[in-house]
Write a structure and sequence with these properties.
Blueprint: H1 54-57, E1 89-90, E2 94-99, E3 104-112, H2 114-118, H3 143-146, E4 152-155, H4 166-171, E5 178-181, H5 183-187, H6 190-200, E6 207-215, E7 219-221, E8 226-228, E9 233-234, E10 240-241, E11 245-253, E12 261-269, H7 286-293, E13 306-308, H8 309-312, H9 322-325, H10 327-330
Parallel strand pairs: 12-13
Antiparallel strand pairs: 1-2, 2-3, 3-6, 4-5, 6-11, 7-8, 9-10, 11-12
């Protein structure tokens, strides 16, 4: 299979619309998903260990603790470790990693099945947006940051995917599961249709796993022809970063032990997207998402078990009137 290579990251803005997004990455004519792999294992929770002397952990290779040398850089860590800290959260319906710098998730991982989606024990009207008090206050996204910001509080794990339990649905309303998203034309429209596409996959696959998160992609400045990463900040003072794009990596499992996995990676601009825009225009190689996010997604999934999602099923959205249904929520943004 020919390798799909990262060719150019194109500028995608609300003014330019979604049509330019496909130019972000070069896809060969076969549009096969790249076979780059990733380690998805999550460290098991354990009780906090006792303090370990920094010299035992941060000694330079080949240098014995206590060996004579004129400096001791690792001595700094006796005052504390600067990070970064991922703030890993295990909720009832998903797992997430939080970015303290942008006040958005690094990634969220969820699992949906025909059984989970058939249950209706959660009522969105009973859920409320809340700040995540598990995040230290100075690194936390705030409700006031979104107030009159012009952006929706955009779920990364949708509330509709966790309706099997009121508690599970409530968990999706933590601000640590949110990113600022363009409302009309995106969060309340095309992005919602994309989420519905993911749920419809359970009609063909007994198990679907989805990784979702934000991206901050560069844009070429025509004045000097150089690339810059530029994004808005919301809040007073500025506190929460507004992503330029969002990704989803989808693993549709056939349900057999050691069976095949239909893999699809998509990148969408945080901008108004016409509802008639083909979803496959946003399909990119897995490696493109990995390079842009700094994450890996399938290192333990053998190449021989991988299938290209959009070759196995019809990758298209069905337009539904989510905007009217959520007007009451939109007014609270």
């Amino acid at each position: 299979m020919s390798k799909a290579t990262l060719a150019v990251i194109a500028a995608v803005s609300a003014a330019g619309g979604a049509a330019a997004t496909a130019a972000m990455f070069s896809l060969k004519s076969d549009k096969k998903v790249d076979t780059t792999s990733l380690n998805t294992s999550v460290p098991a929770a354990s009780s906090k260990p006792g303090p370990v002397p920094a010299s035992q952990v941060f000694s330079a290779p080949g240098v014995l603790a206590g060996a004579s040398k004129p400096v001791d850089p690792s001595g700094f860590f006796e005052y504390g470790f600067p990070g970064p800290v991922a703030d890993l959260a295990t909720r009832q319906g998903f797992v997430s990693s939080y970015d303290r710098r942008t006040k958005n998730p690094h990634w969220t991982v969820e699992h949906i099945t025909p059984e989970s989606l058939s249950m209706s024990n959660g009522d969105r009207k009973k859920s409320t947006f809340v700040e995540d008090e598990a995040i230290p206050e100075k690194f936390r996204g705030k409700l006031k940051d979104y107030f009159r910001s012009g952006f929706d509080r955009g779920h990364q794990v949708p509330a509709a995917d966790c309706k099997w339990s009121q508690a599970a649905m409530d968990d999706t309303f933590y601000l640590s599961n949110m990113c600022p998203q363009v409302g009309e034309g995106f969060n309340r429209d095309y992005w919602a249709h994309f989420e519905d596409f993911c749920r419809r996959l359970t009609k063909q696959y007994p198990s679907v796993r989805i990784v979702t998160g934000p991206l901050y992609l560069p844009k070429r400045d025509p004045s000097d022809n150089k690339w810059y990463v530029k994004y808005e900040m919301i809040g007073q003072p500025p506190n929460v970063a507004v992503p330029t794009h969002f990704y989803k990596v989808i693993f549709a499992e056939d349900g057999k032990k050691g069976g095949n996995v239909a893999l699809g990676a998509f990148v969408l601009p945080n901008a108004k997207i016409p509802n008639d825009k083909p979803l496959q225009d946003f399909e990119v190689p897995l490696e493109a998402v990995e390079r842009a996010s700094g994450l890996e997604f399938a290192t333990k999934l053998p190449v021989q078990r991988r299938k290209r999602l959009c070759a196995e099923t019809n990758c298209s959205v069905i337009v539904k009137d989510y905007a009217d249904r959520q007007k009451s929520f939109g007014k609270k943004q």
